[in-house]
Amino acid sequence: MSEIGNSESEFQSDVEWQAFLYVTDEMSDDEATQFEDRMTNDVEICRAVADATILLSALTSGEFQQGTPARPAGAERDCVPIDQLSIHGQKPNTCSGGVFAAAVCLACLLFVGLAVFKSGKHGHEIASSEKSSATELVSAWASGSYREVESTSVDASMSELLEDDGIAHGLELEVPTWMLMAVEDTEAAPKESENGSEKL
Amino acid sequence: MTIDGPERIEPDVVRELYDQYQKELRAFLLGRLRNADLAEEILQETLATALKSAHQSNEDTRKGWLFTVAANLANRHARREQSELRVVQGLAWIVPPSSDHTSEIVQKETIERAKRVLAELPDDQQQVVSLRIYDGMKFRESAEHLGIPLGTVQTRMHAAITKLRSEMGRD
Predict the structure, then answer these.
(1) Which of A55, B24, B109, B127 gives A50 a disulfide partner, CB atoms 3.0 to 4.6 angstroms apart?
(2) Are A55 and B32 inside 8 Å of each other by CB?
(3) What is the CATH number of domain B107-168?
(4) What residues of chain B lie within 8 A of the CB of A23, using their CB?
(5) Residues of chain B with pLDDT > 90: what percent?
């Protein structure tokens, strides 16, 4: 098996070789356990382990000094802590900026949601009423809008906008003429339809 | 820690023991435990034990006594932390990337000498050293890789280690 006859058994008596096998993990678990037990009774084994460790450290440190990478290329990049990441040398303010943007978005969503909910509620009430005629629809639209203006307390800027239009001061809401004309047409239409069906 | 009894050795003596043997003790504990921080911890524990009990040892055999204490402490700790220590694979423990412990057990001159001796070794010996230490191949894997018997790999490695050890001597 070997270049030198029976060299393996010759090595067995070599404590320093055994120590080298131990530190390089070339021993089986049983052999390693036995060797560890011997350490507590034999100082020479302890010293041999120390020497093997020093030798191995010297050889391995030499490898690192030569510039051989200890890790695969790019591995260091994976380990950079998040707070040390930078763009063009500047650390991003990842926390406070993100929180502020999220808060603004949430406030906007809440505001829009509330507005949609309120208008949707009015529309739903009106549309769901089977009895409501087109005239009621127009008046409801007018009064509903007016009430909404009166009751709303969304914010100062919105009130200012309404005041500019004179709505908040109790002025009469002008119903557009096109809407009145449309209502008249709608009220006339069922009669025509009834007449038409009679004809048929 | 205070010295209670007159029989206990002086802290200065323990400091001398530390200066004299800390490098060897640290290297032994690193080789035994495969963990630089743990080795350091057990080294401190060994010295604390020396402060308390070294007066019971013979001055001429104090070095042996220190190693015996360190070996027993390491064994005790290793049995307690068996599963954790078994996790350490290969030779990564030798040079922990974020530790200065290696520089505490091996000097720059020793590293340079080791490299020089390694470069002077016959090619076949350099080859097995390189495969085992730098490429992380076990002897059996090296044998398969080179297409030679396992015993040949061991013989070459033994010759290389013997040469390295004799040329480097003990620091």
Answers:
(1) B24
(2) no
(3) 1.10.10.10
(4) 31
(5) 42
